[in-house]
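User: Show me an example of a complex going from sequences to structure tokens.

Assistant: Sure. Here are the input components:
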Amino acid sequence: MTFINYAAREINCKIVYYGPGLCGKTTNIQHIYEKTNPNAKGKLISLATETDRTLFFDFLPLDLGTIRGFRTRFHLYTVPGQVFYDASRKLILKGVDGVIFVADSQEARLEANIEAVKNLQANLKAQGYDIQKIPYILQLNKRDLASAVPIEMLLKHLRVKNEPYFEASAFKGVGVFDTLKAVAKLVLNDLKRT
Amino acid sequence: MYEEEFTKIQVILDKLRKEANAKFVFLVDKAGQQIASNGDMRDIDTTSLASLTAGNVAATDGLAKLIGEKEFSILFHEGEKDNIHISIVINRVILVVIFDERSSLGLVRLRVKKAHGDLSDVFKDVLEKSDQRAAGKGQAQSPFAEITDEDIDSLFSE
């Protein structure tokens, strides 16, 4: 639920990056952190293991400026992608306003992507959300790798509702902001209806 | 949340901080968004604090359910100098009190209990109002009804 504080004139939105292990969720957020004006960003918090695998979540607050006199803040979260952290993933979806699914384009990860999309739908449902209604964007990451499968194949298996999709290489910073902007648009447009 | 309730919450937090002799008091929702705060927080990154608190409460909630408890309504973290007392108000918002050796756990618990009653009343009002607003939809125009794509594009222009 978007938290609108009329007294302080602030809108706070929660965006969650979802996807299978090692698909590049944290890399997306790190790129945004590196490329954002220091005044507009908070601290990047990573609750990770010693081997840099996300343990609970990464968190990055972004201050995007004002819209209709309201300060617009986006809180970006990633979930841990590894299968056995499912309990944590479910918790992070609490209060989510928009979801970005980061798919790993490598052929070997196709199954893992499909599993993760299913897992996302189930976990959203457990928190009382419907993937058909929530602002949702698909990012096809790692397009720069030679082992990347054709886009059509990924879309055929991963798309759930004709959602907008973006090609990306989070490692090189390609498509990262396009994806974020697209989900921000969906979330803010959603506010019109509330 | 509107001005009237926001002011009431500020008053309750201010009273709690003074009576509990705490350094810093704040309220955050379960999704990690800060609602209000009180005290000298110049050296504290409150946004991160809010998000980690919500994560902490969510994880503890998960633990409670695993062992068949409804929730753990109070969490307490004890440090060398500073301590954090976390409690859940009407199952919706999280009240956080940070205090040092000038106060004590007993005093904080006592004052927090009192503040819970006051905060519950305010949040019940907020919920009622928001239900009424939802029921009478269309009467009060949302300030965001007019957001255009250009407005959104301008947020990303830098």
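The lines above are the inputs; the final block is the predicted structure for all two components together. Chain A has five helices and eight strands.
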